[in-house]
Amino acid sequence: MSSVVISGDTSGAITLSAPAVSGTNTATLPAATGTVMVSGNMPAFSAYQTANQSVSNASYTKITFTTEEFDTANCFASSRFTPTVAGYYQLNGQVQWLNACVGRFLVHIHKNGTYYKRGTDINATNFGGVVSTIAYANGTTDYFEVYVYQQSGGSLSTDNSYDQTVTWFNGILVRTA
Q1: Are 57 and 123 in contact (CB under 8 A)?
Q2: Cα separation of 17 and 23, whole Å?
Q3: What does the alpha-carbon distance between residue 150 and residue 60 come to, in Å, rounded to a whole number?
Q4: How far apart are the first and last CA of the chain?
Q5: pLDDT at position 28
Q6: Domains of the chain (ranges plus CATH)?
């Protein structure tokens, strides 16, 4: 295998290596500036609830996610995703109720503490809802959280009966800015 090494101005180096297989492989760099992403530095996370959470009637409540399945860039903490790479992120969340919500129910994503994208908005008996969006993050201060609102006339509890399959939040970098 042959390699090309490019040394930095003050320290460090980049090594480009061709695979030890026959044939031609091409990597094309765009005519633009920016960060080149490789599988090791693309933020991605998945978290879920392991304890039911009480949600009061007619209130917006931040959902807590207590267990991380993975967090490739250490960007998820305290039920909040704060990506460290500027770019566009696919974000997804689901909230499941322990008992049916009879009344209005919303699940949505907040960006920087403010209502951002709405998912499910149902005025009927429902056991849960989802939200999904692509959102821009500046890579330094932007953060995302999942909130719910329910209007059933009383408090409800989220459901964690099946661990990571019912109340969860995940996201991944789609492309850099």
Answers
A1: no
A2: 14
A3: 8
A4: 34
A5: 76
A6: 45-176 (2.60.120.40)
